[in-house]
Write a structure and sequence with these properties.
109 residues
């Protein structure tokens, strides 16, 4: 089984679908879908697009061979960095307000 076939199989299992369910959704026979999943058949671009849409993924996401756990870890790191950035932005705004207040105090005299 190739990496793409494994990913399609994993996605199918995550949805709780049988090979028959997916084959019907793709309007192909069960053996034809089984060959896609096992890597026996090369999949054309049109079929890849159809499969990616079925699972709610972009074509790039479908073809990506990265580890889902690694992806989750990276996303957690991105989320943490976004929180830290937002906190820093609040600090910058507070400092800008202080600078404006000081400037106004200096020019009132």
């Amino acid at each position: 089984m190739n990496a793409l076939g494994k990913k399609i199989r994993l996605l199918r299992h995550q949805k709780g679908w049988s090979q028959e369910d997916v084959a019907k959704r793709l309007d192909i026979s069960i053996p034809a879908f089984s060959k896609i999943e096992t890597g026996i058949t090369d999949v054309n671009l049109s079929r890849l697009n159809q499969i990616s849409k079925l699972f709610g993924l972009s074509l790039v996401q479908l073809l990506s061979t990265s580890d889902p756990e690694e992806d989750k870890q990276i996303q957690n790191e991105v989320n943490e960095l976004q929180k830290r950035l937002q906190s820093r932005e609040v600090e910058v705004i507070d400092l800008q307000k202080k600078v404006i207040d000081l400037y106004e105090q200096l020019h009132k005299k």
